[in-house]
Amino acid sequence: MKTGAEEREPAARADRPAPGGLTRRAFLLAAGGAVAGGAAFAAAGEGAAQPPPVAKVPSNPFLGTGGAAFTVGAPCLQAPGETTMGVSWAVSGLSKGVVEYADNAAFRDAKIAQSGACGLVPVDVAALQVRLTGLRPATKYWYRTITTPFTDYANIYNAKLGESVVSPVHTFTTMGAGAAAHFCVINDTHARWKPFQMAVRKVKELAPSAVVWNGDATNTTQDKKTAVQTFLDPPVDDRDWSADIPVFFENGNHDFRGSWISKKEEVVLPRDAAERRGDQWNLKWNFAVRLGDLALIGLDSGEDKPDAHPKWFGLANFEPYRKAQAKWLEEQLARPDIAAAKYKVVFCHIPLFAAEGSPAYPHDGVKIDPHDFAYWSRECAGLWGPLIERAGVQLVVGAHQHRFRFDEPSAARRWAQVVGGGPEYGTNDASRFPTVVEGKIENGRLRLRVHDVFGGRVVLDRFIDA
Ligand SMILES: [Fe+2]
Ligand SMILES: [Fe+2]
Question: Taking the model in full, what pTM does it have?
């Protein structure tokens, strides 16, 4: 059994070598009671050793993995901040996990972060989540996950651990005014894996500082397994696409659909508690973060029909949610670090603008019509538009329409709007293709490019004026 002395091991012993190339503290935290038996560590994706055979696999997965093979997904970087970074990953059975990280490739003075802020360390049968805190802004870190299954958890006194799985080493750089001003956007991926693979391959190729996943990642989510596949372990070649590139998530309307979806934060880490004031606690994924000369601001447009629409069965309460975000947005835009950014870019799933007289214009998300859905949100535009205008935001990045579009700024609306494409591609409609929207500061100017990842071409390449 793990002793109290081991749990309070002084930092001076932390770098003593241990099996698997881990620091001794990482080894102890990961393996717990298995240390005494000298359990071998297996590297994820490198011919991991099979756990010892056990006769029975419990029908309740929370009683342990039993004799089932234990597998671990690639880590996914989520909710990046200047001093924090979330790491989530898929697991095949009951397990605990830690992240070992350092500001150098040799893992000198490495630290360990456990699940949960403090108190009881959460375990789970499908996804583990760890938040690293106290990081330095705009700083590169090396990290790896260490995951240990409970083969038997009939009760805590008699629980048994299996062999730990150590992931390959990955890296990330924290956000901040000193970080490289380069972002990408994917949107409306809808768990359609062919276009998803095209998009994430392009993201890996472009290697931005961060990705904004601008909504409609899902369709309808009825269980945690579906959410884990969508957000953490997609069945594509580049399933490790977010192991080295952090992801800001924003909801689309579909990300509010399904009987399990209200528990999404068990899979997609919300923003760190230190960023979320009590009265704004429900704005779980809103972000306002500096990335070099850019300020990136993420808003959530909610569902695409009015709350009173009969399709929602009384489950939609987005009108106060959008109002709360107007207050939040006003405060974020007034933050000195955000106000000082040369370029301010706002992200939200449902576009904030449609030209009067255009086919999209009547579909504004306001009227209750069983056959209608919003092409743009008049309500969000009314609440947030004046604040965006006053703060001098230069660009709004939308999604939802499944068709790339760019709206030039005008005298009445000084910000440009770009809308990313959706998952449709191929023969039926050549104007529909999946995109990666890319923004990068080059020679002090924001260069906006839109990549058609199906056609392998760039459909927009221009600078945005500050
Ligand atoms: Fe969509
Ligand atoms: Fe949508």
Answer: 0.90
